[in-house]
Amino acid sequence: MTAASRRFRAAVALLVVAVGLAGCGPDATPDGPATAATPDVDAAALVKAVDKGDVAKLDPVRLADGLAPPTNKWFSGLVFGAQPQPVFPLPLSFGLTTDGFQLGLPPVTTTASSIVGPFTPAVTVAAGATSARVSAYDAVSVTIELLDGHDVLGSVVLAEGSPFVSFTAARDATLHVDVPFTADGDGPARATVGDRDYGLEAPDGALASGAVDLNKGQTATWFPLPDHATDGTLKALTDAAAHPLTGTTVAYGIDQAVARTTITYESDGSTGAYTTMPHQRAGDQPDRTCGLGSYPSIYGTLQLCAGKALTTWAPTVEPSGALDLSHLDATRRDAVVAQLAKDVAGTKPFPSDTYFGGKALYRAATLVQLGHQLDADDVVKPLKAKVVAALTEWTQPKGCATRDTRCFEYDESARGVVGRTPSFGSEEFNDHHFHYGYFLGAAGILAATDKRLATTFAPVMNLLAQDVAAAKGSDEFPVLRTFDPYQGHGWASGTSPFADGNNQESSSEAVNAWNGLALWGEASGQDALTTQGTWMLSAEAASAKAYWTNPDLDDPVYQGFDHQVVSLNWGGKRDWSTWFSAEPSAMLGIQLLPLSPVGTYLAGDPGRIRANVAEAAPDGYDVTFGDYLLMYSGLAGPDDAKRAYQEAATLPDDRIDDGNSRSYLMAWLSALG
């Protein structure tokens, strides 16, 4: 049993993402694993120890002073760029206008290669604003101030999973609404836009002649009425809307069975309402009071539930940096070791950028680990020396003072870490979890058996961990920069300059990032960080299967979609496409690399694995990412792994990815056998 496994019995953690604490207690609850304290990190001390530089390319034009720029969020498009972009706080779409805001429920259209739910304004609210800025945020919600010059007119609050958009007046205000809302009895005012009814909850007497008159401190709240509403739906929504959302808190806990996420929608009332996504209903889940109706979405039906706290479970994925090779016979071991020697000898100089450089270091660390497991330390000794030296160079806190590459700097304006040399827009905070996950994983693997290395790597590795996954927002870093607790996965674009919201392509590299975070926590003796990484790893793995590799094709939202996988997910659409290739093999392959030892989370449905591979590589594995497709095919069963091992011998060298090796491919398939 690994150290991580031992900790699973009691591993728990708390994530505070807004003012206040999500409930805590020492024992397990009906909602699952209990909650305890977050990693105790002195972010200011970490930042003080490293080089500073003006290296990021960020221009947060709509952000209040003092806030860390919220890159990689579902709402980042509100903050960056000359014009604000629409955002998609499911079930809604939302956008800023020149003098107010718009909201609407996105209509869903499915084609052969896309599922689209674009920004579709149904209600436009003019507040007389001249500008807007994000004034507060947490991991799930955002608050936007509407301004008249320098004066605040009021604040708009919205959150993922909430059907409400509220405006609270900072001074007496008149809001002009473009559709007529009519009060009817004791319920909220209502308007019909197309085939959808919308509700408006406002103070008595506030609604008059197409306007909403609010006194300072009063609130108006809009919401769409769901499909399949029950007799109690309107009252539940009205009661919740009367106590507007002020923010959210997120708590998590893990045990050997499940990783728990609890999102609490904060307000001054005792009631609330939220929606659940398909992955939040998969498998065993805690009891909820749902049945209030549903909303359509590009991810499938969203169920409307009553309550202020959404708790969801994902199967726990144990972090791991080593394959289980305990059952290899001597013949198979000798074959892997012979190939290992070739891979060590053929290792190219490590690149100097943060993506390919980190990926190469991770590859080297896996080979070192493989040699250690197979009692072939002498074979990997020269490579170990090289990768340790390279990581030592990368983790010199003041490295950028003496060179322009292979070092990390903290940008005080951007409130984040940028590696030199940047790549794929990492200076704009694109893909940080992909890049830094490789570094964290490599460091975690190497330092697991040498605590002196953990001490050497710690100043910079702890900084990278904070950059992508700070459990608490601080002056130095935004909370959970690249992880969305509601959707259960990361967002890759730093500034999200798109009308379709933010996006993520490689779900597997996101999984790899949180595995790396947990491995680094374990190797460096940070139990709370290991727990946090395991929570994120488990949640990301569940979402990866639900929305990328194993979507439920029987769900009506996929009717007319002609593919097995969805390779690029956005806030407002989902595509069978990638940023870099139109090949079918790329659509699946980008969801597999680097197939680390935790990649077995992709197993469980042999028929689906075979169907996915058949679509990706109908004519064999001499294709882009053919190595990963071959490895993935082995997850369908022992006979599939045996066949794949035999085919691996004839796979051309140029089909072995630069983050992979033939010996690791052989070892992976042997572990499955």
Average pLDDT confidence is 94
Name the structural class.
alpha+beta
User: What general form does the structure show?
Assistant: globular
Q: Tell me the distance between the termini.
A: 21 Å
Largest sheet: 7 strands, antiparallel
Helix segment count?
15
* Strand order in space, largest sheet: 7-8-9-10-16-13-12
Query: Which bin fits the share of residues in helices?
Result: 25-40%
Strand content: 15-25%
The total beta strand count reads 27
Q: Return residue spans where pLDDT drops below 50 for at least 5 consecutive residues.
A: 1-27
- Give the C-alpha Rg: 25 Å
Report on the structure:
By secondary structure, the protein is of the alpha+beta class. Helices cover 29% and strands 20% of the residues. It has 15 helices and 27 strands. The strands form six sheets. The protein has a seven-stranded antiparallel beta sheet with strand order 7-8-9-10-16-13-12, covered by helices on one side. A six-stranded antiparallel beta sheet has the order 2-3-6-11-15-14, with no helix packed on it. Strand 8 (141-148) and strand 9 (151-159) form a beta hairpin. It is globular and about 85 Å long. The relative contact order is 0.13. Residues 1-27 have low confidence and may be disordered.
Key descriptive features of the protein:
673 residues; alpha+beta; 6-stranded antiparallel beta sheet; 20% strand
SSE order and pairing:
Layout lengths: L2 H6 L3 E4 L27 H6 L44 E4 L3 E5 L4 E2 L3 E3 L6 E4 L4 E7 L3 E8 L2 E9 L5 E5 L3 E5 L11 E5 L2 E6 L5 E2 L2 E4 L4 E6 L8 H9 L5 E8 L3 E9 L6 E4 L17 E2 L6 E5 L2 E7 L14 H16 L10 H18 L3 H18 L12 E5 L4 E5 L11 H16 L3 H19 L33 E2 L2 H17 L3 H23 L18 E3 L2 E3 L8 H6 L16 H11 L9 H8 L4 H11 L13 H11 L1
Antiparallel strand pairs: 1-17, 2-3, 3-6, 4-5, 5-27, 6-11, 7-8, 8-9, 9-10, 10-16, 11-15, 12-13, 13-16, 14-15, 17-18, 18-22, 19-21, 20-21, 23-24, 25-26, 26-27
